[in-house]
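User: Reviewer 2 asked us to show a designed sequence for the structure in our supplementary figure. I'm pasting the structure tokens here. Could you produce the per-position amino acids so we can include them in the response letter?
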């Protein structure tokens, strides 16, 4: 029998009207299901078989933006970072700027290292290393964290100049740009203490005192008095001049201190010079 009258309305299919497995990928034409025809949240992860979507199913230009991700965040180094947009991961590295002192060679000596971002926790202190000109690394035998800007470290190093590297417990590390730690010997005396000689009044005098170090040494009179007319050449240690001003035999006592190019001072040493005016008085014979 032919149907006469208005065409009945078609009932829209819902997910409950379709049995599992009836509609397969092979029965759906390409592009037949548009994004606008899919209710929001209709496709959940529970409805997608494991491994059903592979790399080749996703366009190279597809992007997952902030609006397509659930509101959430990830945590990096203790800081929450919101998903979506660009993510910048910052590193907090220590910087090393200065060391408090020059140390003697091959003697365990503590120095204070200053900089920024030095970190410590209840069980770990930074690793501190001295780096030689040949890139040999020597670890400090003792490290004590004082603050984010100060660390004490004990080194036993051969003669030389060293950069300092600090590595925080989280692995972030920094190194001084230049060699800021010096292992250097202070000056030591070659000339024995005591008398440098006896000289006649108004005569020319020239005596040399000598100290040695691993760099150039300069000399300074740090106490006492030279004979009149006599001066010290600071670069050479030569004490010279023509004596003047004395009227009787006089012994002059003074100290000289050597200092090297690293500004290390050696021990002050005491010397004397005697200016003689010859025999005085007379003798009687019977």
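Assistant: Here is a per-position design you can include in the supplement:
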């Amino acid at each position: 029998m032919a149907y006469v009258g208005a065409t009945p309305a078609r009932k829209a299919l819902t997910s409950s009207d379709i049995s599992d497995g009836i509609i397969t990928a092979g029965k759906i034409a390409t592009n037949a299901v548009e994004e606008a025809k899919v209710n929001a949240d209709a496709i959940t992860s529970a409805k997608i078989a494991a491994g059903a979507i592979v790399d080749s199913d996703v366009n190279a230009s597809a992007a997952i933006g902030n609006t397509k991700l659930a509101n959430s965040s990830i945590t990096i180094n203790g800081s929450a970072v919101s998903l979506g947009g660009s993510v910048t991961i910052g590193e907090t590295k220590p910087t090393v700027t200065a060391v408090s002192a020059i140390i003697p060679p091959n003697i365990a000596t503590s120095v204070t290292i200053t900089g920024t971002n030095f970190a410590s926790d209840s069980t770990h202190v930074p690793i501190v290393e001295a780096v030689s000109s040949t890139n040999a690394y020597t670890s400090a035998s003792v490290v004590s964290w004082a603050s984010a800007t100060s660390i004490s470290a004990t080194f036993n190093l051969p003669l030389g100049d060293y950069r300092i590297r600090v590595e925080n417990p989280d692995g972030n590390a920094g190194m001084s740009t230049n060699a800021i730690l010096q292992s250097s010997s202070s000056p030591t005396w070659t000339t024995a203490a005591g008398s440098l000689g006896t000289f006649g009044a108004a005569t020319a005098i020239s005596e040399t005192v000598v100290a040695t170090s691993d760099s150039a040494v300069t000399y300074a009179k740090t106490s006492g008095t030279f004979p009149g007319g006599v001066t010290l050449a600071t670069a050479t240690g030569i004490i010279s001049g023509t004596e003047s001003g004395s009227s009787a035999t006089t012994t002059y006592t003074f100290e000289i201190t050597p200092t090297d190019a690293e500004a290390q001072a050696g021990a002050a040493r005491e010397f004397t010079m005697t200016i003689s005016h010859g025999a005085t008085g007379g003798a009687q014979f019977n």
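For the response letter, you might also mention the following. The longest strand covers residues 250-260. Residues 188-276 form a domain with the Immunoglobulin-like fold (CATH 2.60.40.10).
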